């Protein structure tokens, strides 16, 4: 219980820090959103003082002391009030994020779990069969594949399987005629559209899990209790899975949360390539259009999602390894 | 226990200041003894040569746009030309400069920060260590690419300097954490205790006694940070967040997608820059296989478990 409480406390502190960082970022940077919008207008001709005043009022140029702004900001965040998007005016930022988030959560969440399971199994195999082709192939292949930039893998798959072979749709998360609903045909359509993005993320993230598991597994195989189990004449498979892999998996689990941040980042690029209507594509749209309210809110949501995923992994770790609860 | 056995037990790194040249040659020899790392060193060397001697190797200038547009591969243009009429092969060769530069600079800066913070944090105890712990964990857990994208969006079209800065801001925490845990395990060793009792200052203990024992980890985190920097730089430029007039592999992919190379079927335009990014990043990961062997004999190739 104390373990859980300390983890919850840490989560709250981290959430607060992330929210505050999000508040500070735009204020540490040169220029202001209103200036950026005015600069964009100025490309088409001179901006009159009245237009400037109107823009500043509309974009909410901060008034009051920094402390008042901060309190106001915290209040808005708690109420999911992130203002209005410039690009998709008059839609609110919160509703835009709400539409995009499920796509990314399902895609990244599902692929990450598959990659973790497959990568861990391959890593166990590689460490157990060290020196054979079962080791060399996944290790070298994994190293090479994890050096692929996410967007490059995405572009190649898109080109060869999407354009040249024509097996998969080239953009979007569902057919242009379909409307999102919970029905069999729509879910199948969405699944079909998600195959290429999912494969991209799988290919690129798999290598990290294989290498991580292989190296912890090799360390575990050198431990005395493994030698003891072998000396007792247990079957090799029992020693590998029940003795070594079971203990080697724990340190690998801690890197799960950290790796997740990387996968989320990679998925942003993948979504850009496939025009997949998730958080990443929305962030890209916001950045291109200098839509700062949308951009800030998306960054906050992405960070909070990763923090929560880490929290869940931490709790899971505490359940699996009683030593951490002390 | 007699004094003489005490001295024997102290690791060899302690007897006199280590000769930096000997340390480096020995490290290179250890890395070179691993076949995978040997491939990595050769690849990296190839890219460094391409970057340094780009004007001599490239058939044309990277920005010369007087050739036919979107041409296929030919004897004159081995990899064809871009939609703006530039020679793709020359752009690839010149592009090595940006990636190698960003990789080494950002990797080096991240590693310096990681060493400073990781070592002092590992040696400190009490409240200060808790505060640093929190900050480092925060930077580790915040997804790096979105943070980079946001910062880069505020610092409009900052060019390579901005990209290095952004990559360093988000890239130092991992190395700091690895170095910290190693510092913590080293600080309870006998040779550190001996140094404390002989009255050495904390700074000297950290940087003269502990630091030399972590050479392999530091080299490892340098190559790790460089790999991350190269991938991040390419990602940011692919999104159009760098200076899109720079000739680099990231901007080549940016222009390839924006000029619809996918539709015109010029797959080389996509394939070549991405392959170079991957090979450069792989070369550093491969070198790290040899570096792993420095710190952990179990990971050395050919040794039986």
TrEMBL record, chain A:
Query: What topology in the membrane does the UniProt record assign?
Result: Multi-pass membrane protein
Q: Which InterPro entries match?
A: MetI-like, MetI-like_sf
Superkingdom, taxonomy of origin? Bacteria
- Fetch the CDD domains from UniProt: TM_PBP2
**Stretches that traverse the bilayer:** 103-128, 149-170, 190-211, 256-274, 294-320
Which residue range or ranges hold the ABC transmembrane type-1 domain?
A: 101-313
The protein's UniProt keywords, in alphabetical order, are: Membrane, Transmembrane, Transmembrane helix, Transport
- Lineage per the UniProt record: Bacteria, Bacillati, Actinomycetota, Actinomycetes, Micrococcales
PANTHER family in the cross-refs? OLIGOPEPTIDE TRANSPORT SYSTEM PERMEASE PROTEIN (PTHR43376)
Instruction: Tell me, in one coarse class, where this protein mainly resides.
Output: membrane
User: What family classification does the UniProt entry report for this protein?
Assistant: Belongs to the binding-protein-dependent transport system permease family.
What's the protein called, per UniProt? ABC transporter permease
Q: Where in the cell is it found?
A: Cell membrane; Membrane
Automatic annotation (TrEMBL), chain B:
* InterPro entries attached to this UniProt entry: BP-dependent_transpt_permease, MetI-like, MetI-like_sf, OppC_N
Q: Which UniProt keywords apply?
A: Cell membrane, Membrane, Transmembrane, Transmembrane helix, Transport
Q: What are the residue boundaries of the ABC transmembrane type-1 domain, all occurrences included?
A: 100-288
Report the transmembrane regions from the record.
41-62, 98-124, 131-154, 160-179, 210-232, 268-291
**Does the keyword section mention Thylakoid?**
no
Cellular localisation? Cell membrane
Pfam families in alphabetical order: BPD_transp_1, OppC_N
Q: In what way does this protein cross or attach to the membrane?
A: Multi-pass membrane protein
> What is the superkingdom listed in this entry's lineage?
Bacteria
Family membership noted in the UniProt record: Belongs to the binding-protein-dependent transport system permease family.
> What protein name does the entry list?
ABC transporter permease
Organism of origin is Cryobacterium breve
Q: What taxonomic ancestry is recorded?
A: Bacteria, Bacillati, Actinomycetota, Actinomycetes, Micrococcales
